[in-house]
Write a structure and sequence with these properties.
2 domains; Rossmann fold; 15 strands; alpha/beta; 6-stranded antiparallel sheet; 12 helices; Beta-Lactamase; 365 residues
């Protein structure tokens, strides 16, 4: 029996009280506030369940058994930890002194169906025309930034987009806690490590990013950019590492570029602001904006191209390719092509040219 099999069997035993919710495809998140207070998110609604752990000791044992298989330990020195389940679901654990009472666990599930972008089209997350446009963008090695709020579906979309990366390319994935489930064969997955109780041995996203550049990647995918590594990513994207992707917390494409700039300024490298903005504008080609609507539905609300320059007012010049627009004779909003011609028209790769359809040809004509 492999280590993964032992891990899965152990989790099956210790997480028995919440097993039905982990198996329920309609449940996207399980939130454990204490041994006897468990909530789930199902179909976009928060629901308090009747599930219970037998006692606090049983609950603590379940947490410790999750963490031990990812090489992490919950302690007063490390009260906040990210881990994962065997199926790739993300686990976040928080304990005192960061939590006033007890220990809190949140499990973010990733259903296999959500890794399929065709399924996202069926759900109405994006339209068929937008799906084909994003496929062309991936094939054309555009650097893509998926932006959105918490629980808006950024990681699910990034997973789905990875299916369009051509076979035979070497992909390096960098994450705080491994949760991306890329659908290619040649994937190198790197994961951060927290410092020990003496402050030694920490490995940050930035450390991993620098290492990844020595691993001969064709594409680099960062689960989420949230610090000074943003500058390293920008510089890598402008020096030959096309087709890279990442996610970022932001409420609009314009906010995404501004936040990326702010994160880059958190690095220890002193760079004139105008130079940083010029590099950022050249590095990011496409921003896909995700949003979680009232009722829990997750939508792509905008797809914008970055024109590769900064305007006279110092702002990034964006071109909205797709936006939410009201349907004719309906109150519903739908992601629709704005009629703008892509800045990459005339610069498509052979693979992208071969994939043009009646839906996408007008965008690149």
């Amino acid at each position: 029996m492999s280590v993964d099999d032992i891990f899965a069997a152990t989790i099956e035993h210790y997480l028995a009280p919440i097993r039905p919710y982990l198996d329920d495809v309609a449940v996207s998140e399980v939130m454990i506030n204490s041994a006897n207070e468990i909530y789930i998110e199902k179909d976009g609604r928060l629901i308090r369940t009747e599930a219970r752990f037998a006692d606090d000791l049983t609950y603590a044992s379940a947490i410790n058994n999750i963490l031990q298989f990812t090489g992490k330990t919950l302690s007063d020195d490390t009260p906040l930890i990210d881990a994962r389940l065997p199926n790739g679901s993300r686990v976040h654990v928080a304990k005192a002194p960061c939590v006033r009472h007890g220990t809190v666990v949140t499990i973010r599930k990733f259903a296999k169906s959500m890794l399929d972008i065709d399924w996202l089209v069926e759900l109405g997350t994006l339209t068929e025309q937008a799906r084909q446009f994003l496929r062309l963008s991936v094939l054309n090695e555009q650097n893509i930034l998926v932006a959105g709020g918490t629980s808006s579906g950024k990681t699910s979309l990034l997973n789905a987009l990875s299916a369009y990366i051509p076979p035979g390319q070497r992909i390096v994935v960098i994450e705080d806690s491994a949760e991306l489930q890329l659908q290619q064969d040649h994937v190198i997955s790197l994961e951060t490590r927290q410092a020990d109780r003496f402050g030694r041995g920490a490995v940050s996203i930035r450390d991993l990013f620098r290492s990844s550049l020595r691993l001969r990647p064709d594409r680099i995918i960062i689960g989420e950019v949230r610090g000074g590594e943003a500058l390293d990513m920008i510089q890598a994207m402008t020096s030959g590492h096309g087709g890279s992707m990442t996610t970022l917390h932001a409420n609009s494409p314009a906010d995404a570029m501004n936040r990326l700039e702010t994160l880059a300024l958190m690095s220890e490298v002193e760079l004139p602001l105008h130079a940083l903005r010029a590099q950022a504008a050249s590095a990011i080609h496409l921003i896909v904006q995700m949003s979680r609507q009232i009722g829990g539905k997750r939508l792509v609300t905008a797809i914008s191209e970055v024109e590769g320059r900064v305007g006279e007012d110092g702002r990034y010049v964006l071109r909205d390719m797709f936006a939410l627009q009201r349907r004719e004779s309906s109150e519903q909003m739908q992601l629709s092509w704005t009629g703008e011609r892509s800045t990459h028209a005339g610069r498509l790769s052979d693979a992208a040219m071969a994939s043009l359809s009646d839906l996408t040809r007008p965008i690149f004509a």
